[in-house]
Request: fold
Amino acid sequence: MGALEGEGRPAGGRAVKHIPLAEQIAEVKRELAQRQRVYRRLLDNGSLTNEMVERRMLRMHAVLTTLEHLSAQGQRHDRAR
Reply:
């Protein structure tokens, strides 16, 4: 299956190490940019519809918004200490 297998676990079934929110946010932003390029091509060749692309992009933007919200909450919590 490649680098990831099963239910989001890395190859070999090893547990996922903690990944800081800032790195997760950066990865989602990178993924959004990549999807924008790929989806353009898939729209052109008819593999995806505009509705499918919009829905997928909205979901990924929701992920980004959630992570950014969690990051902001953590920063406020850290300052309050």
